[in-house]
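Q: Can I borrow your eye for a moment on a structure tokenisation matter? Would you mind producing a protein record, from residues through to fold? Write it directly below this note and I will take it from there.
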Amino acid sequence: MTNPFRRPLLPGVDHVSLAAAQAEGIADFTGLPASLRILAEDALRHGELDAAAAIAARSATATVRFCPARILMQDSSGVPVLADLAALRDAAADPASVEPAIPVDLVVDHSVEVDRHGTPDAAEANLAIEFRRNAERYRFLRWAEGAFRQLRVVPPGVGICHQVNLETLAQGVVLRDGLAFPDTMLGTDSHSTMVNALGVFGWGVGGIEALAAMLGRAVTLRVPRVLGLRLSGRLGAVVTATDLALTLTETLRRHGVVGKIVEFDGPGLDALSLADRATIANMAPEYGATMGFFPVDDETLRYLRLTGRPAAQVALVEAYAKAQGLWRADDTRQFDETLGFDLGSVEACMAGPSRPTERRRLSEVPASLPAPRTPPEGAGLRDGDVVLAAITSCTNTANPAAMLRAGLLARAARRRGLVAKPWVKASLSPGSRVVTDYLAEAGLLDDLATLGFALAGHGCMSCMGNSGPLDPAIEQEIRAGELNVAAVLSGNRNFEGRVHPLCRLAYLASPPLVVAYALAGTLRLDLTREPLGHDAKGRPVMLSELWPDDATLAEAERGLRPALYQARAADTFTGPPAWQRLAAPVGARFPWDPASTFLRPPPFATGPVAAPQLLAEVTGARILALLGDDVTTDHISPVSRIPPESEAAAFLLAQGTPAGDLQSYSARRVNHAVMARGSFANIRLRNRLVPGREGGFTRSLPGGETTTIHAAASGYAAAGVPMVIVAGRNYGAGSARDWAAKGTRILGVRAVIAESFERIHRANLVAMGVLPLAFPPGVNQETLGLTGDEVVDLSGLPGALHPGGTVRARFRDDARCLEVALLCRIETAEEAEDLRRGGILPRIAA
């Protein structure tokens, strides 16, 4: 059936016109934010006129459906999604019926580690180690490439998914069968918002949500609230996009934008390059927004040309944006709320020691460290020393100005005879090969390598915790002295235990500041007034002496040209010879190996774990963990290397895995037996049931013996005792990690009771059939005086499973019984049905 609002756009190209729908009286889209105009177009194109009208009316209660044009995944989260897809094929009479309905791109970027560093062959060596460790997982991906028609895999060694998406994969506007429509997407990584800088509508979701969307299920959501952030002024001469992003992260998190879209507006946009905008958009999960959206303007087109997009595609983006009212239009959008921000107010800064929101001016960094202790006699290290310095992450390596500044600062430092301190493990891991190309052409790759920042690979690496080992002597000294040492990285997250288990402190910084702190070797210095080193003649060297000025940077930027991007884009899907040589199975069904310790058939679609667990009231539940504020998905489901003393390691060793080949939780994500033992196993987790002890431990009640969370959960499950988790604010912050919800479900947890939830993890819990419950305002575990020893009853189920529903909770022990009404954090009727059916996967498999 022809859409009644389909109109010509360009010769041979049509579009579904918002203007035509408005002229027909469907809705008045005048003044609607650009982000919501895209959502309204999606509704119109799919014939949902009432939804389009609700979006235009900004209805706070309306539920609308969104059908993304494509899915983006990285391997850490994407391999489990493909395994779930393979499991659905196993359950289907016709396996070919289980096929993605929309295009899916998976970028292999989360598996490479910094095993080798500081040598000319480091990148090549790390890639070879990556293939050896992950051969079984990569053969599975090669099978999936052949088994699913709509799947493309970007092989290892190419770059980071969000940077590859920004530079190569994103189209801005999609053209299919003569119809143009917005390039929209969902990504299985929270920082998928980076592409919002191009005016692409999309955000991060859990793998289960992505799987449902790729199989054709629309995403249901309430009409989002939109905050307009009106920018003015321009950044100062020594201020980077990283400084701006960290400042906005602090500002917006304090303001409160969880679940909202932040749309950027105002004349200050003229002073921000597309790459600067991408740095800001990338950090949306850290400031809590669903998206950090930038409308299309001339800078968008300039970037598309720079990165080698065809002229016809650039023309299509411009024509479509202008026809649909998506073109930037300062001060004409009607936002739900507005906030002004002066770019000139931003100062050079870092964020740490454990949260992206902990912004510190450089002069404030020393005071943010724990109180210094007197080092043991003869000690080489002290509290506050930097042992890891990593130029890493798409957040900043996709920004040529930031990377060139780092190289230019390295050149200036090299000329003064400076090198990284010997206790610093320095590394360079850009998010695309283009970065390496333009740094090499400018001679800056050599300058960085001379200072210790030799190329280590192209992938996430230190940003997601694949920092590799430190020097054994350094590790021994840290452990012996229980030192508070630090990592400084140009990444987007610095949660406890994420970057390296021995780095209790981690600070986010711009690439040039990463170089500076590697030279200083410590965070105890105030680099605004103290030297970061001394040259060969003993003269102090100040950071301000090394910092490249704007003219020097502009000269270096002249080397950026479309041919660099086009050359790399041409072989995006080719891969290194090791990838091409991989022998993969063929066929519609994957041949699971029962002896594998990496790939086991997932249990979430069928079987006991898939059974609904909220069809009756919950009585006599035990609190498995009593947690505080800001518990992240890294705490719930770590991605780090599996510690040899952990329960997961004991399981693998019993299966015959060599002690030196335990690898990471991330690599073992399709082995649910390992991941169950890794759930809530972060070495920095603090469970108030075991005060004074860090790690994945709890007390098993009523006896009270201390044991691992997995062992306690297994005991409760065997005895038929239900379980809940109780937590504070911002539960589930961090990565879009569906295993944080899968692990919660596989342990047998029925509900998580918290003061507030981060958006993605709340949705992931629902997708796994676990009920998120919120304390009412002013009530929390402290006001109730909970100790974790209480027995918990949840009454009102399953009738309360609907948006706005309440569950009556009783917390009781021998001395008292407390009652409180908890809010079901269910957003839509679709989510309620998912909970009744045991989650999305059982519902799909039924």
In short: The chain has four domains: 6-66, 70-345, 359-548, 608-845. The CA atoms of residues 632 and 734 lie 5 Å apart.
